[in-house]
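Sharing a chain and its predicted structure for anyone who wants a worked example. Both blocks are below, sequence first, tokens second.
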Amino acid sequence: MKVNHNILRLKHLLNLYKFSLDDFLILISKGLKNQIIPEDILRDEIKLSHLKRIDKVFNKGLHYYLDPKAPETSKEASIFFRKQNFNSDLNIGAKKIVNHFEEFKISLSAIAKLSDMEYERVFPIFSINDNPKSVAKEIREILYPVFTNNLKDFLKALISKFAEHNILVFEFVEYWNQKEKANIDGFFLNPNVIVLKRQQLSFRREIFTLIHELGHFLLNEEEIEKLEIEHLANHNLSSIERWCNDFSFYFLAGDFADTLEKIHSVGPENDYQFELIEKISKKTHLSQIALFTRLLLERKISPSNYNNVKMEFEKAFKERQAELQRIKEIEKAQGKKQRGSAPQPIKSPLLVSTIQTAFYEGILNEYEVCKRLNIKPDKLDRYIQ
């Protein structure tokens, strides 16, 4: 069976995802005896089976390729048209996530305008010439929530604080059976959107990523990236990345930054200051390895001693995970019901209020509310009355 499709839309996606035609044809031909050739997909008529293979890559839905309208290719339509290079070499999973939230951002912006809602920026645009410690102190007074020891609750409180000041934060969750995992931790999309990868095993890492992306927002510099803790001490980072890392550290550390700065050296002779580092970690939600990395950046711990500490943390983490897996297997063998459920993304109050307003204004119906909030119909009464 053949159908007519809009070739411009396919070419748009190839350009957006930076696919060469040859590489794309190899990708969609996997498992076939005869490889798909350009003429098979660049004609007005295309086999439905080929179109389905194309959509397995992009997940746009078959209706997307059948739409006769020309796709939007302006810089406003995608960060991939606004910026050519990123701090990470993005895989297709990452590009899908970015494209999804870019489209969602544009759609939500249109809904907000129809609802007479404004997302005006309430913060000035800073420069890398501004002292990140001073900026962190200033912004912390506005956005830092009441501290709680519960990491997930603290992350939720941060997202709510951001929402109060027109900064929209999204989480995306990757599940164990997901084929294409995104090789990024977070990104900032102009003018006011921050997207985070749920770090179920390390909320401290996710919190640091959130504040790092807040730094990008304050500088008004879009970026898509994977943040590796050991890279925080990399002296070859760009000035923007260094500024955002410093800002994130000072924002989360608060007055404890001064405590860390008073440490002269760390090593076996003073038990690596483990007791003090652990205390600061608990009071700031900066991970202990992030604090040791800061000391490495400031040359207060030697690279060899830092690597020893890092290996100890990695060993302890693996042992904890192995113990949890052992307990899980024992409970399964005993027929006990498995604890926990699939994690759900944290919803920004700014997203919820926008969708609620659009519903009450008659712009969205109940089905659209469920779709945009990613909830089941039986949960609808939690959001609208």
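Comments welcome. Residues 1-71 form one domain.
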